[in-house]
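User: I'm new to structure prediction. If I give you an amino acid sequence, what do you actually give back? Let's try with this one:
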Amino acid sequence: MGTAIEHLRKHQSPTPSKWREEAEWRRANKAWLRRSQMVAVKMLDKMEAMKWTQQQVAEKLGCTQQYISKIVKGSENLSLEMLAKIEDCLDIVIFESK
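Assistant: Good question. You get back a string of structure tokens that encode the predicted 3D arrangement of the chain. For your 98 residues, that looks like this:
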């Protein structure tokens, strides 16, 4: 048993894990993260239907492809302005008004 422990210690990362902090952050931000993921799915579905790349969407929105990549990963806290631009650009409804 001592060999297994020694083996684990030998391959242990020199930097401590941040899994607990990340889990707590996700829990604290669960509401907007869920909505961000919903936006990402709608965007990806429409982009696939239109056969558009992230680069094409970025050009239409006036931002970088890297920013679009962050959005479609579902963890970007989007502004109302960007949400409106996405709706107009892709002709989708993100949040329905009552």
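You can read the tokens as a compact description of the fold. Here is one thing that stands out. The mean pLDDT is 92.
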